[in-house]
Amino acid sequence: MNFRKSLFVFAIGLFLSPLGLAEELSVTSPDGDIVFKISDEGKRPQYRVFYRGEQVLDPSNIGFTMRKLPDLGDESFKLVSHKRGQNDSQWEQPWGERKIVRDHHKELLVNFERGHKPKHKFSLRIRVFNDGLGFRYEVPKQRGMKSVEIVSENTEFVFPKPKESTAWWIPSRGWNRYEYDYNTTALTEVVRAHTPMTLKLSSGVHISVHEAALVDFAGMTLDQRRPGTFNADLTPWSDGVAVKTKVAFKSPWRTLQIADNAVGLLNSDLILNLNEPNKLGDVSWVKPGKYVGIWWGMHLKANTWGSGDIHGATTSETMRYMDFAAKHGFVGVLVEGWNIGWDGDWYSNGDIFDFTKSFPDFDLEKVTTYGKTKNVELIGHHETSGSVTNYRKQMGDAFDLYQKHGVTRVKTGYVTDGGRIKRIDDDGIARYEWHDGQFMVNEYLHSVTEAAKRKISVNTHEPVKDTGLRRTYPNWVSREGARGQEYNAWGSPPNPPEHTAILPFTRMLSGPMDFTPGIFDLSFDGLDAENRVKTTLAKQLALYVVIYTPLQMAADLPKNYDKNPEAFQFIVDVPVDWEESIALAGEVGDYIVIARQERDAKDWYLGALTDENARNISVDLDFLTKGQKYRAEIYRDGLGANWKTAPYKLTVESRVVRKGDTLKFSLATSGGVAVRFEAL
Q1: pTM recorded for the entire structure
Q2: How many degrees, rounded to 5, is the angle at CA 260 between CA 259 and CA 261?
Q3: Catalytic site residue 486?
């Protein structure tokens, strides 16, 4: 039975004994739709979650298993006190999907204490928003607990009717990190999954499970023990320990984004709101922009990363790309393969990379000086091949070199199998870690803060997943963390048509992704080849609106853009920084329609794409400004277009539209539409 106690009775209960009365507490979202309840009435503290009266999370355990210490959150822990709070404020992103973010939540801090010696204690801080919730563990300083080793986390997510629920997920703790095709299965078929994991309950409610503010902790994956019961499965160190930390400490937030439909998940700022504000101060030097690069040619084997006759990263080739970038208003040119270490099996020779020495045919000073005359920067590149100790030793000098030559953006890479990150310990012994273990969580952030000291932004590939730290460190502008465009060159198989209709509802809920869209030569090995881009040309344009990143690539070779200037014009026009973003329609893995307004401007842009199924969509233009006329410049699938045999059919047209109008489009198989609404 639940007991609602007055403050007087509650105080007396605390005075007499912290274990005297069982209790259930609740905290509700500002709009009343989401309710988080926590109780010590059972064998151990548990929580549950309701959405519009429906229990969407059944009673679920909390706590940690510690080495050499009693478990936090076992049956001996009781709720001893609590404190409530609320917040309704706004904050401004220096760049992002929207300029102004509202942080509106109610908070409950619940304090637990062990009923017998040692008298350990911890707190659970819960924040409930209209778009979801987050909770984290806070362990204060206390006697007998100076430093701890967490063996495992006991947090559960217990979903009702799992056989009737659908999940979209990728496997965790695998060799290919996060770069897997998404599975669409019954929830019961999930084994161990990365987050964000998205699911649809039998009632139609959509939920995404993730975490926010992952700092100095192991990444959380999800391990299904019993049907519907998922444990927070922390990625361990090489010695098996999950987390090594000192007391006091706070865990990352465990998050649930909740909506009554798939689109509701997209219109959420939950992950960002659970991160700390900007710690870097003035970040006006962090500049969004579009870039081209010496990159796609290597994936097509037209160029090589290593030295030789078709070496891509040469002085002359970089200057040629800079000419192209300048002509079309792009901010930079990414150059991979410029430094010593790429010859031979670069995937395995991370110990020999030198981050300050160029190949003889690449003159860093010459290309950066030339770029300044064109108002185009070199975008730097550091590939570690997973040898992070080698990289850390050189990191300061490497960033100093880039700073000296005016390089303000760097792409870092950690290509190696999952579990094969190489570090050298204090005894000189090689240890091998996971990309999302505590060691690498700290290593990635170290690279970002070191870059920030030189006013350099970082785009991380083979990263740890995004958890919203771009709010705290705005120079962490983007990352990979999913199957990108390069899989279409050699993936065997390449990305399926549904891939980019799943990403917005899964991976993209965590933050920006450097997917590298804009391939115009969709069938470089022929239409019947296994390796090709399984989209129409219009869908490639739609990706510039659908897949968000503030550092966006035009990924194809310049010659392919020169052949199709009409379609390329959309890439030239589309911005990468937004005043507002609104998901209008969509279903996970089927299709998506999203509109974004250019930051500090009147123009809007729209992107829509579909999976392998052709479909008709109707878009109400209610997002446009009342009283304003717009020229809608439309790039859509042409008559008869389909991704298999006619991917290049594209119709470009324009018309004048206003708020309240409706546009109707026919999307081809794996097709799309991109629209610029230019204010008149």
Answers
A1: 0.95
A2: 90
A3: yes
